[in-house]
Amino acid sequence: MPQKDPCQKQACAIQKCLQANKYVESLCEKEIAEMRRCCQVHAGNSICCSGFKDSKPAESKSSE
């Protein structure tokens, strides 16, 4: 039996939030941050993290 993806719960939470908020990402920042945290720990063991591997939090958009 295949092992459950360690970040599947966070990935599902993002999808649920996006669907509930008409895909406005800014309304799901908490869920996205949780997914990033999970992927920092489990990147090598999580298929769900494949799209999060190289993405970085958008903390400082304008540092001018």
Automatic annotation (TrEMBL):
Family annotation (Gene3D superfamilies): CytochromE C oxidase copper chaperone
Major subcellular location class: mitochondrion
Disulphide-bonded residues: C7-C38, C17-C28, C39-C49
Localization terms from the record: Mitochondrion
Entry keywords, A to Z: Disulfide bond, Mitochondrion
InterPro entries: CMC4, Cys_alpha_HP_mot_SF
One family name in Pfam for this protein: CMC4
PANTHER family reported in the protein's UniProt record: CX9C MOTIF-CONTAINING PROTEIN 4
The family this protein is said to belong to: Belongs to the CMC4 family.
Protein name, entry field: C-X9-C motif containing 4
